[in-house]
Amino acid sequence: MLLLMITGVFADDPLIFEPPIRTQQNGNVESAPNVIATTPEVELRQEKSNAPPSLKNEQEQTEPEQVFKAPANPKPWKGLFFDNDFSYKNDPHHTHLFGEAFKDISIFADVCDGCSDWWVSFGGELRFRHMNEDNRLRPGGPGKSTYDLWRWRNYLDVHYTDRFRLYIELLDASIFNQELPITPIDLNRWNIQNAFVDIAFGERDGNPLIFRAGRFELLFGSQRLVSPLNWSNTRRNFEGFQVISKGSTWDFDLFTSRPVNTGAGNGPLSRFNNEADRADASRTFNGAYTTYHGFENQTFDFYWLWLREQEERANVKDGSRHTIGARWGGTHTIFNESGEIQRTYSWDIEGGYQFGHEANKTVKAGFFTAILGHTWDQRTWKPKLSAVYYWGSGDRNPNDNEDNTFSVLFPLGHAYWGLIDNLSGQNLNDYSLQMLVHPTKKMSFLTAMHWFDLDRNTDFLYNVAGVPVGKIGSGTDVGEEFDMVLTYNFNPNFTVQAGYLWFWYGAFVENSLPRPDANQFYLQSILRY
């Protein structure tokens, strides 16, 4: 299922995709693909400073040339909380948000000269979701269940200039009143989600080169292959090392890591209910991710990802799988005679190839996806229509020496292959049409229709957890899904969202996994501070 931008703030909102782009005007890029970059009306002219973004204005206010006007609708919370940006506070006339007083606080300023180079931020999120689902392709199903999910996140972020950083984030994920077995992404009690240090060891294009060590979340590109999976009650995390370099036209990210919690595929679930999380020493996830943003309103990604499994277990094969891929995303606006935006075209195109070996078989697999969108900016409700195609390869012959089933690695599957969370992107074709409208400035309404087929009749269907289900040779028609989502943003701190989703099963499910059609209702609220 396509990621659909409704609120422009929350990384788990199922909204029409706005590709992460970087503009030549301000050089900013959002790390989460569902956040639209906002350019201040007058750009802040900054000299080099050791202060955080929201403190620089105070330290440099003697420069008469400096003028800053905050965006009308600031979006400081990002897909990764350690990427949050509260620079809108530079404008003394900005709209105040709950919790901003705890961001970018200068500490030790009265203790000694130079001590003002230390600053700290504190914040978090409380999320509640009520679920009512029936006949999903889920572990422990089919069946009907209503249940409640609570998640609390809280972080502390300490900086010394731009040379040193300590970041710690706690997470508690709980589930209540469930009638079916708990899934791995529902439960993780009182654990450390992120805990890392950043040390600057050089400079490129005026930005520090960062070495990161510890436990951290990963998010790259459109989150098709690497995502913290914010929709889940838990969030994926990893332990290891990163080298991060942001430049004027090229960004580089190198990492080596081990998956940590159940969201990243570890288990058993019982251990994450009452024990401290620890990394899985039998699995390594490494990679290099580069982004070119030298063209205005366009982004080009190039990447290599390597997942090494050294222990065979249920639904996991011992092996080594490499993924090489590229992505192109961007927007193009058309103006009318009055200089107003008449319409906006958007696109997000990505593909990749996998090779290696798994369970004594040679891996040869791939994927391709294209999202094309058009927004009528001057029409009532500003409708946006998007067309989506996705292909993830399936195995051509289960009895030969090749494995052609594409592995989706660590994706934001909820956002791309149907909001009801029935399917994963292995051995799958997905055709989709989606419409997003804005009845008011604070309200958005999404409708999306999907048509699903298997890529190969010689492979299984894979559920949202990547588990093969059904019987080979049962047909290729998986079914259709229709989603409706209504979101109301009271302000950037607080949003409420409701969704109703239907899935009509096709011949493959009817022949090998007989059950009534599926439906799901959810009601969610998020408070961030």
CATH class annotation of the largest domain:
Mainly Beta
* The CATH topology of the largest domain: Porin
- Bin the strand percentage: over 45%
Count of all domains: 3
What shape does the CA trace take?
globular
Helical content band: under 10%
- Which CATH architecture of the largest domain? Beta Barrel
**Intertermini distance:** 29 Å
Mean pLDDT comes to 87
The stretches of 5 or more residues where confidence is low (pLDDT under 50) are: 1-19, 22-50, 57-66
Tell me the number of helical segments per DSSP (H or I, 4 or more residues long): 4
Query: Helix-strand pattern, N to C?
Result: HEEEEEEEEHEEEEEEEHEEEEEEHE
Give descriptors for this structure.
Porin; 4% helix; disordered N terminus; 529 residues; mainly beta; two-stranded antiparallel ribbon
Description:
- The radius of gyration is 23 Å and the shape is globular.
- The chain has an 18-stranded antiparallel β-barrel.
- It folds into three domains: 20-123, no CATH class; 162-310, no CATH class; 331-529, Porin (Beta Barrel), CATH 2.40.160.100.
- The chain has 529 residues and is mainly beta.
- 4% of the residues lie in helices and 47% in strands.
- The model is unreliable at 1-19, 22-50 and 57-66 (pLDDT under 50).
